[in-house]
Amino acid sequence: MVSVQSDRPDSGQGREELTIPSSVKIVIAGGFGVGKTTMVGAVSEITPLRTEELLTEAGEEIDDLYGVEGKTTTTVALDFGRITINPELVLYLFGTPGQDRFWFLWDELAIGSIGAVVLVDTRRLDAGFGAIDFFERRGIPFVVAVNCFQGSHSYTAEEMRVALDVAETVPLVLCDARDRESCKSVLVRVIEHAMNRLDVMA
After folding, report:
1. 29 bridge partner residues
2. What is the DSSP pairing of strand 172-175 with strand 142-147?
3. Is residue 179 part of a domain?
4. 125-130-135-137 Cα dihedral, nearest 10 degrees
5. How many structural domains does the chain have?
6. Least C-beta-crowded within 10 Å: which of 50, 127, 143, 201?
7. CATH number at residue 79
8. What SUPFAM superfamilies does this protein's entry cite (predicted)?
9. What does pTM read for this prediction?
10. In what order do the strands lie in the sheet with 73-86?
């Protein structure tokens, strides 16, 4: 949080102090088709920037649509959104592309981030392993968010932790990537986890 002085009068009490919110960057990552674009769109207070392209026959041998057969578009660079958590904190959200051939962008998108959400889908758990490994190797704090929605398999958080082989020190939460409040709770958890990591390191 940064404070500045305003020349605007404030009932004769001198110059008024204004608060400029601090901004932080969070990455929304995960495999192909797990709901990253949906999450950014659900929680962003601005119209999100999207770089989606139609899936074509040329990609049939590359893009694995198992479990997401109805998917018609894919992110080829990033999704970008913004959410104000409170008057002192604004989050900038960067959603990664999911396909392996675009993973060279992940390092650039992760620069300057305080933490990340690794979004996983119970229909395609194996798609989450690469993202978990990416943030573990770079020491970036992350939260695993299991995208639960109507028609998906129902598992407990502990069952998911075992299946994904996620350490107890990594928060794992259940969420709905279509629901704003659910996504907001996940982002708050990322901030808390990142702050706790800083406290431990201090």
Report:
1. 118
2. parallel
3. yes
4. 130
5. 1
6. 201
7. 3.40.50.300
8. P-loop containing nucleoside triphosphate hydrolases
9. 0.75
10. 49-54, 73-86, 89-95, 22-30, 115-121, 142-147, 172-175
